[in-house]
Request: fold
Amino acid sequence: MSMILELHTVSDASLARVLADPPLVWKVVSPDDDSLYDAARAEAGGAEAGFFQRLFGRPGRTQPPSVDFSLAPGEVDTIDLDKAWHGIHFMLTGTAWEGTPPLNFLMHGGVEIGDVEVGYGPARGMTAAEVKAVAGALAGIDEAFMRARFDPAQMMQLDIYPGIWDRDPADDDSLGYCMEYFSELRAFVMRAAERGAGLVISLT
Reply:
C-alpha cells in the first residue's frame, strides 16, 4: 500500500479541542466519514468501561456521547504530498527521519494527537505559532537549495520512500516529482501562516 502524507489547516481553538479529545481528529482528517469518528469514540468508551469495571466492579459507560464539534467554513484546507513527502523531508533536512526544527516538521512537527491511529500512527498537531516558524524557514529555501540536496544514491541507501530515486530521469523524473510537490507544500504553509492557522499532519 502507498503511504501518503496529508496536511490540514485548523484554528488553534479547534486544535486545542482535538488534542483534548483525540477521536475528534477524524473530524479534521476525514470529515465526510462519520463512521471513523464513531469507531474511535466507541474504542475510547470501551477503554473507559474496562477501567471502571476494574475500579468499581461494575460496567462503565460503554461509549462516550458524541460531542458538538464543527469546523468553521473554510477552516480546513487540505493538501497531500502523494509519495513525495519522504524525499522532500530528506532534501530539507539531509536525514531519513530526524533533522533540525523547524525544517523537520513533516516528520516531527507539533505533538501527537493521542493514540488514535489515522493510518500509520497518530496524527500530529501544530499550532499557528509553530506553522509561522516553519513558513519563515521555508521562505529561505529556494529551488537551487532543494536541487543541491537531491542525492539519489544516498536516498536509496537510506531507504527513502518510495525507493524510486535511482531511476533514469528520462523515464521517471523523481527530482521533478519532489520539486512539484515541494512548491505546492511551500505555498500551502505560507497561506496557512498568513491566515494564522495551525496544522494537523497525518500519514495514511
Q: What stands out?
A: The mean pLDDT is 91. Strands lie at 5-10, 78-80, 111-117, 122-126, 198-203. The chain has nine helices and five strands. The radius of gyration is 19 Å.
